[in-house]
Specification:
It is a single chain. Helix content is 23%, strand content 27%. The chain has eight helices and 17 strands. The chain binds 2-OXO-4-methylpentanoic acid. 2-OXO-4-methylpentanoic acid binds next to loops.
């Protein structure tokens, strides 16, 4: 793929406050774009970060034929940039694409676009511990048409944002509540892909949760409202003594890259890792009898986010005294050490550039 490159005339790097990054507000100098028309992806280009202009009839604005990925790059101790498991993200965007009738991106082109953009904006990768460059690849239909139909044209883009923590709590525990009324996903739906619509429909229940002082919804299965699934912005894991439990990948939850990395590390540490159905009743009962040791969310944006309180149908349990648990901290440190190149990357997860 021959990527045309137009560099910015004036970098915004100098005027960016790296001490106050937050999450997802600041963007690097450049972005990648490529268009799909006449049955093929074409015109790959890197241009200065800028607004887009589209018709009000843009099909995606109406029917949400849009998918995305979230991945991160880290400033490694050896001066290189480590991109964490980009191959898995390249595969996952294509699995999302298939579900929404979006043309797939050749994995080699995905990687080339990613590394070329990152190389141009490498100075934007934050150098402080706990900070990283969040990378957002996304694809959306660009037909100008009000009928409900598969778009014939698309745009694939990558934008990047230097970030610190996603939840203001960082590694301090957040509180979650279940929703008696709403569901995130159902069998045969789109809960296992990263489509914009999944996130739009979670906003209203999440607002209700926030009004009650909870950071997010802990989603239960849609059939029985009984089994824990995920949080929407992250997967969720439960540590009972030496058993680490998370929901199985059966079509309604996202196959998180951080989830998979944690399960792999925990197995290597000797924990019994179970991908099994876990009822909210078991969670509550075992929180009360003390055998539920820790709960934490895991995701690219959130990294590891301990959960200190869970509310379900008016009953509230506290986990680990609402404090950050040892396992959560240990796994967070281990992931960081791999990503920042402080320990050997025995799994081959980093792509260093
Ligand atoms: C991610 O962790 O990258 C996500 O996609 C979650 C999100 C911020 C929507």
């Amino acid at each position: 793929m021959n990527i045309k490159i137009q560099k910015t005339e004036k970098s915004r790097l100098e005027e960016t406050d790296f001490d106050d990054l937050g999450f997802g507000h600041i963007f690097t100098d450049h972005m990648f774009m490529m268009d799909y028309k006449d049955g093929r992806w074409q015109d790959p280009r890197i241009v200065p970060f800028q607004d887009l202009e589209f018709s009000p009839a843009l099909i995606t604005l109406h029917y949400a034929q849009t998918i995305f990925e979230g991945m991160k790059a880290y400033h490694s101790k050896d001066g290189k940039i480590n991109i964490f498991r980009p191959d898995v993200h390249a595969k996952r965007i294509n699995s999302s694409a298939r579900r929404l009738c979006i043309p797939e991106i050749d994995e080699k082109d995905f990687m080339q676009a990613l590394t070329a953009l990152l190389d141009i904006d490498r100075e934007w990768v934050p150098k402080k511990e706990e900070e990283s460059l969040y990378i957002r690849p996304f694809i959306f239909g660009t037909d100008e048409y009000l009928g409900v139909a598969v778009s014939k044209t698309y745009r694939f883009m990558i934008i990047m944002s230097p970030v610190s923590r996603y939840y203001k709590e960082g590694l301090s525990p957040i509180s979650l509540m279940t929703s008696g009324e709403f569901t995130r996903a159902c069998e045969g739906g789109t809960g296992n892909i990263k489509s914009g619509g999944n996130y739009a429909s979670s906003l209203y229940p999440a607002e209700l949760a926030k009004e009650k002082g909870y950071a997010q919804i802990l989603w239960l299965d849609n059939k029985e409202h009984k089994y824990v699934e995920e949080v929407g912005t992250m997967n969720i894991l439960f540590l009972f003594e030496d058993e680490l439990v998370t929901a199985p990948l059966e079509g309604t939850i996202l196959a998180g890259v951080t989830r998979d990395s944690i399960l792999t590390i925990a197995k290597a540490w000797g924990y019994n890792v179970s991908e099994r159905k876990l009822s909210i009743d078991e969670v509550l009962n075992r929180a009360e009898d003390g055998s539920l040791k820790e709960v934490f969310g895991a995701g690219t944006a959130a990294i590891v986010s301990p959960v200190g309180r869970i509310s379900h149908l008016g009953k509230v349990v506290t986990i680990n005294n609402n404090e950050t648990g040892e396992f959560s901290k240990r796994i967070y440190d281990e992931l960081n050490s791999i990503r920042y190149g402080e320990i050997e990357d025995t799994h081959g997860w980093n792509l260093s550039i």
